[in-house]
Design brief:
36% of the residues lie in helices and 8% in strands. By secondary structure, it is mainly α. It is globular and about 65 Å long.
Length: 626
Amino acid sequence: MARYWSLLLPLVAAVAQVDNDVEPTVTNWPPSSWPWPNAPFVTLSAESGPISAHRSKAPVTTSFTGIPSYTYTSSESVSASPTLYPNSTSSASPTSTSNDTLPACKKIQYDFPAGSGSNAERAAAVKEAYLFAWDAYSKYAFGMDDLLPLNASGINDWYGWGVTVVDAIDTAIVMNLTDVVTQQLAFIQNIDFTTTTYGPVEIFDTSIRYLGGLLSAYDLLKSGQFPNTYDQTQVDALLTQAQSLADKIAFGFNSPSGLSATNVNFTSDQPVFGTYTVAATNQTYNSTNTASAGTFILEWFRLSDLTGNETYRELSARAESYLVNPSPAPVYPGLVGTQFDVDTGDMLTFDGGWEAGVDSFLEYTIKTFQYQETATTTQYKDFWLQAAQSTIEYIALQPYDFPDLTFLSYLDVNGSITWSMDDFSCFAGGNFMLGGRLLDMPELVDLGVAVTDGCHQTYNTTVTGLGPIAWSWYNASDLAYDPLRDGDTAARRFAAKYGYFIPQGDEGWSSRPEPLESIFYAHRVTGDPIWQEYAWQIFLAINETARNDIAFATVNNVNEPFGGSLSNSLDSFFFAEVTKYLYLTFSDPGLVSLDQWVFGTESHPFLVQCGNGAIDDYSGANATAS
């Protein structure tokens, strides 16, 4: 899942903030009534210290073969001069498709033998964790955006539309929690997405959390793969609510270039532009973050297909066109920077990689190709391959004296390697595995496995068993990007033992899902049972460290016993991503199969446009209990 924390704007809170560093409440977990399975490893205590390092494996290849040359060709849906939204270019109804007219689905998942690949007891444990947190939200904060888990209250930090409800519903559908889904559907149909009292609306998170959650729940319930005995008026409202919200977000594309603004004023329907100042020239530009502008295509292409309104596809494709044809060119092909000028469409920075700020843009270039193969999405795929090629050649690096450990460095604003990686980049492991299977490139799968293994190393070697938000390492010459770290004795000792060190300020864990995301892909793509064990270790660590007697909270320091202290937040993506990826890792591999579903960056699955398994049977006649 993508995040760009430097651009998250402060919102007006509905309740007073409490102290941000509160000692965690220690509870007896799991409940005595819960039939808890035996842990596969000795859980951590204040005395036990870091657990053993990652398994040794061979280094990945240093180059790929068969990568096509890349030349940008303007899509017919991208006009030279953008027409301001709204306009009258869209059709009024969806195009009817059937399995007879769709291409065959590409095989992504490992062929698990019948009855293998799942663990019902562990899946039930994850479901209990979802319900434990949901019950707290429902009791103390229902209808508000997020639960505050240290003082049992709620906060409206995402416009007061109840982001936890919308973000969490598709996980409840997948878990077959019918009472919870009924509660969520009844709430969602009455949300007024046309107005908010909480200021300009940041449209990236609003799209991936709210719009993605609505469309995914609609697809799941209409797919025929899940029981759908709910009020069909409320089910249909998922799509109409998605349209209502998208029609407001769309005003954000009214920029001179067609790149999306950071925010939209929902009262005036005017874009609100972010800015970026180039330090070398002190010149300020109206700008957008690359991940923000480049993470509409999957949800908005799906919305166009469901409604027949091509405007959604055209707006998002026009914005994407600047990102897949960057000017000036990045230092390494495909590895674009994190800031673009919304007036001209020019790239402003060279800080490429897979990190926060650019991550989900790259993620969607291959996933939208998986969703639907067209001339436009084929171009996205080819661009993604350029980024993958540059990655393996330049930024997939091994720390000093750790030749079997692979991290993905991001670049600084000038395009220099930093020998640093953030947790957000860990999604790339699963993205490489997906692309490798989709394109029949096993070397890409190998790269994805290596990256995922590296991310697991940052969990497997801390006191809590949870990973930090970012980390750094010493390069092949035993030097750090920051010269001050060269003489940092503590950092050097930790890096000598584990291959990396955690810079001050990056020690927290706040329901980050990306490593679990890639572990899920590794399980479903390779079939290796080690990935389920890794997921289980992380699940136990979450429960030991982040769980209190109310719900789950943010861990302030993963390398202190019991996390040191907790902070008073539980983001909606704990429900949307953390619990969903864990549950699907232990469930039957046919549940939300990667052969038929493509996951958005918030872990919201959408139906791939391929004809296999009657996935377009919206009658529900083929539904089976999950």
